[in-house]
Amino acid sequence: MASRIVRAACPHDCPDTCALLVTVEDGRAVKVAGDPDHPGTQGVLCTKVSRYTERTYHPDRLLTPMKRIGRKGEGKFAPISWDEALDTIATRLQAIAARDPQAIVPYSYAGTMGLVQGESMAARFFNKLGASRLDRTICASAGATALRYTYGASVGMDMEHVVDARLVIIWGGNPIASNLHFWTRAQEAKRRGATLVAIDPYRSLSAEKCHRHIAPMPGTDGALALALIHVLIRDDLLDHDYIERHTVGFEALRERAQAYTPARAAEICGIPAEDIEWLAGLYGQLAVRERQPVAIRLNYGMQRVHGGGQAVRAVACLPSLVGAWRQPAGGLQLSTSGFFPINEAALQRPDLLPGWPQTLPRIVNMSTIGDALLAEPAPGAPRIEAVVVYNSNPVAVAPESGKVAAGFAREDLFTVVLEHFRTDTADYADILLPATTQLEHTDVHKAYGHTYLLANNAAIAPMGEALPNTEIFRRLAQRLGFTEACFADSDEAIAAQAIIPGDARAAGISWESLKEQGWQKLALPAAPFAEGGFPTASGKCQFYSEPMARDGLDPLPDYVPQYEAPLTAPELAARYPLAMISPPARNFLNSSFVNVDSLRATEGEPHLDIHPADAAERGIVHGAMVRVFNDRGSMVARARVTDRARRGLVVGLSIWWKKLASDGKNANELTSQRLTDLGRAPVFYDCLVQVEACTEGAVLPA
Ligand SMILES: Nc1nc2c(c(=O)[nH]1)N[C@H]1C(S)=C(S)[C@@H](COP(=O)(O)OP(=O)(O)OC[C@H]3O[C@@H](n4cnc5c(=O)[nH]c(N)nc54)[C@H](O)[C@@H]3O)O[C@H]1N2
Ligand SMILES: Nc1nc2c(c(=O)[nH]1)N[C@H]1C(S)=C(S)[C@@H](COP(=O)(O)OP(=O)(O)OC[C@H]3O[C@@H](n4cnc5c(=O)[nH]c(N)nc54)[C@H](O)[C@@H]3O)O[C@H]1N2
Ligand code: SF4
Ligand SMILES: [Mo]
Asked: Start and end of every 4Fe-4S Mo/W bis-MGD-type domain (predicted)?
């Protein structure tokens, strides 16, 4: 039997970006394992991706192009040839573009994080076409904007060193589910004597294993962080030298934090003031008095609320106040993606945009796609006539899902979906195109939780008639008569363009070396900001941000209250008194893997975790079916009565495929299309609901 091992990379939207070893026997991938030599992966994969062959060889894989033969959303399709599919798409897009290309909207996110199969040929195609530009805000843009204003880019400490930290604060993240390889290191730090603290409204799988769990209400982290700053300043737990040399605006920050006494923050957050005193004391004592490393693993869970951006700003100030950056095992990490010297201009070719660089096509925010599809367009802007979806499943993942589905159901909308499976979104496609998976195509990857570049070598031939995203857009470009040389680039040629030539951080790294070795680490100092040197204009941490003042924003971090909470929306809170969050389920990756039977079986069915007191008030018993609802919509779930959910909070782990839920709905029926204070991002976790036991007739069998 001919057996070989292929070096690959996990494509999923996960900070760990694991290095994979794919065993191929007679042209079939038989095993996907973690590379034991890659310091991040350490030979271990999460359950989802260790089952990657189940996903690749899934009997439901899309294997031919198809056209819709049923109603939109019904999911009835008939196979067609690639020529018919691409000719139909080219003809339709050309006719729309002749009127106004901005009526065409590409919709994509991080189904694959690959730089080649993500936004390379696709971006070139839509840029040349002059389509609307997509504001890719659905996940991280509140936090990314906050980091940019504070530190200049999405940069932070290297978690390879966190094993040596004495205090690890896990803030708004559940790493056992969503950042497994960091969790392994945090466990090692714990064995070496570190204190682990979770800040999370929910007692997640990770929070329950920390020494201490602080559970603020969702959307109140800004107040908590400012109170920590208040105590650090009050008790002079400060690294005055670091502040003096490497920060801007300390006096202004001191004034701002003055108002956030532990007592006031405790009231806003719904936690004991003592928790705040304790955490600030420990953080400052270790970092300043004992010069020990203290680390914060901030995650995106806490920025999916109205004040998410400013909350990230407030938390991000902490390591500079105590000089935690001085040590490799200290500082903060939300994302490391800003370290990578990626040549986006070469990959995406924004210079192909009509009007570049002065008058660019309009921007459509992916987080408000429901309204964008349904509402009357702004004066002078065209109504959306076509959407091309790839690497995303908006009908399941975008907020206020009822409106998203209604938008995609528009009879006059032409929808193309490139997919592996018949997702909730695929059901609305006019033309559905089969895309290759990571085992079937070439790619190159950066990461947002470590600092390695990785290659993904194709392990097997494409399944059925599936094609890589790149090839689909290459063929469309040809049909539309795009003659620029970049439309003929092979995937290997694109991969070779990904790294900025001559950048010192990527010294010795090329596509050729990556392909061969699988992964290589960027050349960065162990403690990149020990002596400041942040990628801001001044090189300093901006407690006070002049650019924010210029942009008409509050230049100092603050607590920006939730849209939906008793204090800010009392009338709404009277009808919908419970805060709902819908963070990632361990065995799904966003809405990917929900259709892999073994993984869905582990998650069981849509659940709603509710505190015993909140359940009792509503006559809800453990295991009962409940209806969760607000003015935007409703969904049915099985109640788990548990104090994992704090009082006033309900938790529905996500993101379910709507059609695989008993009522055809998921948590995004309830979420709103309002946006964060910074970064125009969605507020999935700023959402009030009411819950009631299902009436007899609505109770479904277990
Ligand atoms: N298994 C799995 N892994 C994933 C994903 C997945 O769907 N499944 N998704 C991937 C993606 S796209 C991303 S963006 C990343 C990161 O995804 P994140 O959204 O950071 O997800 P989690 O790490 O699960 O952390 C969310 C935690 O934040 C808590 N939380 C919710 N609201 C608040 C709040 O207001 N304040 C605080 N302090 N905590 C809050 C939740 O209770 C939850 O435990 O994970 C990636 N990894
Ligand atoms: N309620 C609620 N909603 C949320 C969140 C939440 O926590 N709660 N999290 C939000 C976050 S953080 C994110 S990042 C978004 C994620 O939203 P999405 O980025 O849309 O993620 P997925 O749901 O995994 O959908 C990705 C799709 O891309 C497809 N795909 C994968 N690889 C390829 C490929 O190579 N080619 C093509 N053509 N398709 C491919 C997969 O089959 C999958 O269906 O969801 C957001 N929505
Ligand atoms: S999803 Fe994350 S933990 Fe799982 S294999 Fe991929 S990168 Fe690793
Ligand atoms: Mo995300």
From this structure: 3-60
Q: Residues within 5 Å of ion ligand 4 by Cβ?
A: 139
Q: Does ligand 1 have an atom closer than 6 angstroms to the CB of 201? A: yes
Element at 296 (helix H, strand E): strand 294-298
Helix (H, G, I), strand (E, B) or coil at 538: coil
Residue 154 CB less than 6 A away from ligand 2: no
Ligand nearest to the CA of 218: 1
Indicate which residue's Cα is closest to atom 7 of ligand 3. 17
The predicted model gives 591-612 an average pLDDT of: 96
Measured CA to CA, the distance from residue 314 to residue 309 in angstroms comes to 9
Query: Ligand 1: distance of its center to the CA of 173 in Å?
Result: 5
Instruction: Report residues whose beta carbon is within 6 angstroms of any ligand 3 atom.
Output: 10, 12, 14, 16-18, 45-46, 48-49, 180, 589
The residue type of 424 is D
Between vectors from CA 464 to CA 463 and to CA 465, what angle results, nearest 5°?
Answer: 110
> Which tens digit of pLDDT belongs to each residue from 267-297?
999 999 999 999 999 999 999 999 999 999 9
Question: In which element (H, E) is residue 17 found?
Answer: none
The CATH 3.30.200.210 portion of the chain extends over 3-56
Architecture per CATH, domain 3-56, reads as: 2-Layer Sandwich (3.30)
Q: In CATH, what number does 157-334+528-550 get?
A: 3.40.228.10
pLDDT digits (tens, 9 = 90+) for 93-126: 999 999 999 999 999 999 999 999 999 999 999 9
The per-residue pLDDT for 378 is 87
- Ligand 2 and 110: CB distance under 6 A: yes
Q: What is the pLDDT of residues 445-489, one digit of tens each?
A: 999 999 999 999 999 999 999 999 999 999 999 999 999 999 999
348 SS3 class: helix
| Residue 219 CA, closest ligand 1 atom number | 35
Q: Is the peptide bond prior to 357 cis by the omega test (within 30 degrees of 0)?
A: yes
For the segment(s) 66-135+343-521, the CATH number from 1.20.1250.20, 3.30.420.270, 1.10.760.10, 3.40.50.740 is: 3.40.50.740
Residue 10 CA, closest ligand 3 atom number: 6
CATH code for the domain defined by 570-693: 2.40.40.20
- pLDDT tens for 357-373 read 999 999 999 999 999 99
Read off φ and ψ for residue 290, nearest 5 degrees.
-105, -5
Ligand 4: distance of its center to the CA of 597 in Å? Answer: 23
Q: Where in the sequence of the chain do the CATH 2.40.40.20 domains occur?
A: 570-693
- Give me the pLDDT at residue 2, please: 84
Q: How far is CA 28 from the centre of its chain?
A: 31
Task: Give one word for 668, left, alpha or beta, with left for phi > 0 and alpha for psi -120 to 50.
Answer: alpha
Q: What is the pLDDT of residues 205-214, one digit of tens each?
A: 999 999 999 9
CB 268 within 8 A of CB 558: no
Beta strands 77-79 and 66-68, pairing class: antiparallel
Where does CATH 3.40.228.10 sit in the chain? 157-334+528-550
SS3 300: helix
The reply to whether ligand 1 has any atom less than 6 angstroms from the CB of 584 is: yes
